[in-house]
Amino acid sequence: MAFPFSPPITQETATEFFSSSGVKIKEAGTFVGEVTKDAKVNVADVAERVGSMFKSVEACGVVTAVGPGLTGRQVGDLVAYAGQQMGSYAEEQILPANRAVPVPPSIDPKVAASLMLKVCGNKKSITAKSDSTIVIQVEPGHTVLVHAAAGGVGSLLCQWANALGATVIGTVSTKEKAVQAKEDGCHHVIIYKEEDFVARVKEITSNNGVEVVYDSVGKDTFDGSLEVLKLRGYMVSFGQSSGAPDPVPLSAIAAKSLFLTRPSLFHYAATREELLEAAGEVFANVASGILWVRVNHTYSLSEAAQAHADLENRKTSGSIVHIP
Ligand SMILES: NC(=O)c1ccc[n+]([C@@H]2O[C@H](COP(=O)([O-])OP(=O)(O)OC[C@H]3O[C@@H](n4cnc5c(N)ncnc54)[C@H](OP(=O)(O)O)[C@@H]3O)[C@@H](O)[C@H]2O)c1
Predict the structure, then answer these.
(1) Cross-strand partners of 45
(2) Where, if anywhere, are coiled coils annotated (predicted)?
């Protein structure tokens, strides 16, 4: 039975997916979804929010049926996916097979469920080759700022930037989250509800600023993030948990010849090859211990409203997973 907030998958679209090389999976774990916030968002707006951005688009499950003529995937395979097929708040789901990624046996399904969207969307921002004009290769000697450093994505970004040899500054809202961010590789943690993060970053970097800011908070942090970047720094604005940033005048970018990018997972794992490469690298890094995923909260599907409320109220850290 589909969860009531899931966007409707009609018999027609389900049949279409299935007959054009689809797989049906029984969910093992489902990531709660994205957080986005504007002035009117509250718990009662969950259904509206689900319809307004890409939500419930990440899960891990066991294949229970494959479409006619499909090769390469079998009943019993453990697969995960992110994006381009809403409706993961469900016990069973039909997916286009080319979005389903095999999950190695060493990876816990809850971890796989919470990993796909985050890392496909953001790993290239941190690891892609520096010959790209929009992303930067983080390397030793760099200093990076990660907002919401104890969040699902933030936690992984801190670990990865640290592993690449960068000095990592993280922002969080509470002392408890600060402890986690430290454990995840932050060399400096700023509690941005209590401290002015701009002043603190300038202090930490002796007024030099940072090479990269990973900003998923959006409205509340965007301007400050630009302010703490070095000349030719990279502003990676990949989310808007506090609301959409105001329009950015070109003069704000020109002031320091900055690079501004708004990456989306859909564009960094657009082809099957890119998807498999990204997922393979991430699973390998989890298996080898370079990355660890904190599934700090699990909820049943019937507790989805509570999960969203906790997410919106900044009560969560790490990843949040529904267990059907
Ligand atoms: N571009 C992409 O392809 C892509 C892919 C995945 C995720 N994302 C985005 O990345 C962001 C992080 O996703 P996530 O799942 O890992 O969530 P998350 O970071 O675990 O949760 C959101 C965190 O944002 C912080 N925050 C700051 N101001 C907030 C506010 N006004 N309301 C709510 N939270 C606020 C909170 O941390 P503190 O309490 O520490 O401030 C909160 O815990 C989201 O904005 C998501 O949309 C983008």
Answers:
(1) none
(2) none
| Nearest atom within ligand 1 for CA of residue 152 | 16
Ligand 1 atom nearest 155 alpha carbon: 16
Tokens of 258: 């900055």
Query: 186 near 155, Cβ under 8 Å?
Result: no
How much is the pLDDT for 56?
A: 67
Nearest residue to 123 via CA among 155, 75, 83, 160: 160
Tens of pLDDT, residues 235-284: 999 888 999 999 999 999 999 999 998 887 777 778 888 888 888 888 88
pLDDT band at 85 (very low <50, low <70, confident <90, very high): low
CA of 296 to the centre of ligand 1 (A): 15
To test ligand 1's pocket by mutation, which of 314, 319, 321, 322 has the most ligand atoms within 8 angstroms of CB? 314
Task: Decide if 153 contacts 118 (C-beta within 8 A).
Answer: yes
Taking only the tens place, the pLDDT of each residue in 20-77 is 556 677 666 665 544 443 222 222 223 344 444 445 678 888 888 888 878 888 888 8
Predicted structure pTM score: 0.85
213 touches 225 (CB < 8 A): yes
Cα–Cα distance list, 248 to 35, 160, 209, 253 (Å): 22, 29, 20, 8
Domains detected in the chain = 11-116+293-323 (3.90.180.10), 136-262 (3.40.50.720)
- DSSP for 233-267, written as a single string: EEEEE---TT-PPPPPPHHHHHTTT-EEE---HHH
Residues within 6 Å of ligand 1 by CB: 34-37, 117-118, 121, 148, 150-154, 172-173, 177, 216-217, 220, 238-242, 263-265, 311-312, 314, 316
| Cα 238 to averaged position of ligand 1 atoms, centre (Å) | 9
